[in-house]
Amino acid sequence: MEIIKSVKEMQRWSDHCRKQGQTIVLVPTMGYLHEGHLSLMREGKRLGDKVIVSIFVNPAQFGPGEDLSTYPRDLKRDFHMAESAGVDIIFTPNEWDVYPKGFDTYIDQEKLTLHLCGLSRPGHFKGVMTVVTKLFHMVAPQIAIFGEKDYQQLTIIRRMVKDLNFDIEIKSGAIVREPDGLAMSSRNVKLSSEQRKSALALYLSLQQAQKQLLDGETRSEQLIAEATSLILSYPGTVIDYIHICDPDSLEDITTVDRPALMALAVKVGTVRLIDNKILTP
Amino acid sequence: MEIIKSVKEMQRWSDHCRKQGQTIVLVPTMGYLHEGHLSLMREGKRLGDKVIVSIFVNPAQFGPGEDLSTYPRDLKRDFHMAESAGVDIIFTPNEWDVYPKGFDTYIDQEKLTLHLCGLSRPGHFKGVMTVVTKLFHMVAPQIAIFGEKDYQQLTIIRRMVKDLNFDIEIKSGAIVREPDGLAMSSRNVKLSSEQRKSALALYLSLQQAQKQLLDGETRSEQLIAEATSLILSYPGTVIDYIHICDPDSLEDITTVDRPALMALAVKVGTVRLIDNKILTP
Predict the structure, then answer these.
(1) Of A222, A247, B13, B30, which sits with the fewest C-beta atoms within 10 Å of its C-beta?
(2) Within an 8 Å CB–CB cutoff, is residue B180 touching chain A?
(3) What is d(CA A257, CA A279) in angstroms, rounded to the nearest whole number?
(4) Distance between CA B59 and CA A99 in Å, rounded?
């Protein structure tokens, strides 16, 4: 496994691979890798000739007061984990190369960003789309893989790729969970052991909604009320949002008479966690 | 010369060329070609192996009340002219392929768009940056050439290419003028013979400013006042703006003690014309 820091070097490397007819797969990450990331890398190995993992904690997608400065980082650990997953290149550009002096260009959307995390984190997806576009231009992959835990991000990136005619296929990987059901997240390491117990409420509320739906409760309002009640019964939880919405448009739906996305964001102490599930009636 | 309409076909064609190690040059246009466009195509032939000319009248860069519906079009004439300039591919995507149903992604800048045409045409450069990004992804050129008549556009695109890490070299071509000095523009065909005489005022005001500068007048305010007076002495002219500004930041400068951009937009009847010149003290 090779480590590349320079944008120009990354571009030359990819150009060389593509000229040899190789398929490049990009797995963009913010590092502090976990089994969720590794599952995407292994899928990348299956799909292409070369797997590039980018590690860049993107300041543009953190709002004021969010956890940019405390976001967990451990590059040495990340390198070992990526190597064990068969990754070919770790790409770790510097912040001053990604956002040089005078930087002034951004990408945004007006519709899909009006829902879920787009409302609680204004500017977040603008930052995501901008950095993902930059990474696409730096790495020039034919395939890029994103995790389904960030469901709205995945939806927005699919839309962006289609709208901007990127010649890139977007693939997704299922949420990977801890044995008890908690969705893997780099932020989980920040939970105290008490908070770790409360964090399970996200998963349990999704499971409960699916069960209640199968028992005949199709009203989103009622399903959300029950989820709210379950989550708040755990100490230290503050609900940011719980929505049941159309899996494509992300618009709220009132009756779950077809597959619907249940998505939620909950703060456990200072740690903001998200999770989601497609509810199937 | 070949004509390609399909985005997918264009991408496959370019991918094939690049795999063979060829350099692709893109000259983006809105058609109704003139000698200015042809000079960019000939420069393209010199710089690369394949020259692609895109012809697409981009609705996203026209505001309400602007001349989208009356913008001159003549594809047959364009094909002949491009062929005579040695162009390899004319790429004419359909509007519904460029902006399909549900389209929602755009590119914008906050600083360079605050000046010159950015103020009189809100959203114009957002439309330009979005379509140019799309064309870059459709054609995948290593080099793209833009005319210097659209000076602010060129500046904004250079910034965008740098900011978004496009692996594309941006080249520019000097303004090509009619024998009397009028800058070539597809819109010139819309001028009546009376208006055609008034249209020369743009060029003459730039020449006058350069002469006055060499005669010792370095105050922007005074140079602009003289230009205003000259232009308004021609019938049917309405000045949109005249600015003397820094050629990189496009911010106004008060004293021309170094090379400065003089840029102006003038309506002659219903036809909005632009022109510019680097004033050199």
Answers:
(1) A222
(2) no
(3) 10
(4) 31
| Residue B180 lies inside a defined structural domain of this protein | no
Cβ under 8 Å to A: B residues 129-158: 129-130, 133-134, 137-138, 140
When pLDDT is cut at 50, 70 and 90, the band that residue B116 belongs to is very high
For residues A266 and A269, what is the distance between their CA atoms, to the nearest angstrom? 9
Q: Are B229 and B253 found together in one domain? A: yes
B264: nearest Cα among B63, B115, B116: B116
Do B159 and B25 share a domain, yes or no?
Answer: yes
Contact by Cβ (8 Å): A16, A23: no
Query: What's residue B88's pLDDT?
Result: 98
SS (H, E, C) A128-162: HHHHHHHHHHHHCCCEEEEECCCHHHHHHHHHHHH
pTM for the structure as a whole: 0.96
CATH number at residue B245: 3.30.1300.10
User: For the complex shown, is ipTM > 0.85?
Assistant: yes
Quick: pLDDT tens for A173-190: 999 999 999 999 999 999
Confidence of residue B42 (pLDDT cuts 50, 70, 90): very high
Same domain, B207 and B142: no
How does residue A192 score in pLDDT terms, banded at 50, 70 and 90? Answer: very high
Kindly report, residue by residue over B163-178, the tens digit of the pLDDT. 999 999 999 999 999 9
Same domain assignment for residues B124 and B242? no
Question: How many domains does the structure of chain A reveal?
Answer: 2
Nearest chain A alpha carbon to B8:
A167
Return the residue matching tokens 């021609």: B234
Is A37 noted as a catalytic residue in this protein?
yes
CATH number where A56 lies? 3.40.50.620
Q: Does a structural domain hold residue A180?
A: no
Structure tokens at A51: 């797997």
